[in-house]
Amino acid sequence: PARGTPILAVEAAVKRFGGLVAVNEVSFGVNAGEIVGLIGPNGAGKSTMFNLLTCTMPMTSGRVRFLDRDISGMAQRDVARLGLARTFQHVKLRPHMSLLDNVALGAHSRTRAGVVRAGLRLDRAEEQQILHEAQRQLARIGLGDRAHELAGSLPLGTQRILEIARALAADPVLLVLDEPAAGLRRKEKEELGDLLRKLRDEGVTILIVEHDMDFVMKLVDRLVVMNFGSKLVEGVPAAVRADERVQAAYLGS
Ligand code: ADP
Ligand code: MG
C-alpha cells in the first residue's frame, strides 16, 4: 500500500474478562509507512489490545479492519497469511536451531503455514528459495555473517532482533511488536531502535506496544495512549509527552 494509506483500523474494540473491562471502546488506526506506539501504564489494556488486533484472542464487541477486510474473528494463522505479523513478548525462538533456520521457519507463516507442522517437507527448489530469503533477511538486520550460529547463544537483545527478522521473512505488510525493548540493556535498545527506524524507512509499517516511554518517544511517528482500558490521548510524541492526562496516568502507576 502507498505511504499514508490506512491499513489497520481498530473500531470500538471491547474486551471483557467477566466483570472486568480490559479494553473499553478503543478505536485507532495505522497508516502505511508509519511507526505507531501503543503505550500506557501497567494494566492499561495494551497486551489485551495487542491480542485483539492480531486475532490472538476474540473480542467481546467491535471490529478490526486490515487492508479493507474485516479480520475480527479470523484465525491468527489466516491473519498472518494476509500480512499481519506479530512477535511475542517472551522470545519464541528455537534456541537449538541456527539463526538461518529460525528465520526460514518464519517464511512459512505467510506462504504455507501447514508445512512447518508437517516437518518442512519441501522440494529442494522451494527449500533453496526459502533459505535464500532467510539469508537476505539476516543480512538486512546485520546478522548475515552469523547465520549458522545457534539462536540460543545470542544475547537477549540480538534474539529480539532475530525474532523481528523471522517475522519479516513472511514479508508482512504490518509488523506488530509486543514490548520488544523489555529486559534489554541501553545499548541493545538503541540498536533495536535503529533497526526499527531503518525498516520503517524501507517501507515496513510498525505498531509497537511498549511500556518504556523513553524508548517509544524517540522512535514513533504517532502514539496512542491507553489507561484503564480506554484510549486516553492520541498524537505526535511531543504533544503526548506534554499532555497532563498522560503525565498523571504515568505518575499514578
Ligand atoms: P497491560 O498490557 O497494559 O499491562 P493487560 O492488557 O495485560 O494490560 O491487562 C488489562 C487488564 O485486564 C488488567 O486488569 C488485567 O489484570 C486484566 N486481564 C488481562 N488478561 C486477562 C485474562 N486473561 N483474564 C482476566 N483478566 C485479564
Ligand atoms: Mg502487557
Automatic annotation (TrEMBL):
Protein origin, superkingdom: Bacteria
Where is the protein found, in the record's own terms? Answer: Cell membrane
Every copy of the ABC transporter domain together lies at 8-253
Q: What is the protein's given name?
A: Branched-chain amino acid ABC transporter ATP-binding protein/permease
List the range of the whole protein covered here: 340 to 592 of 594
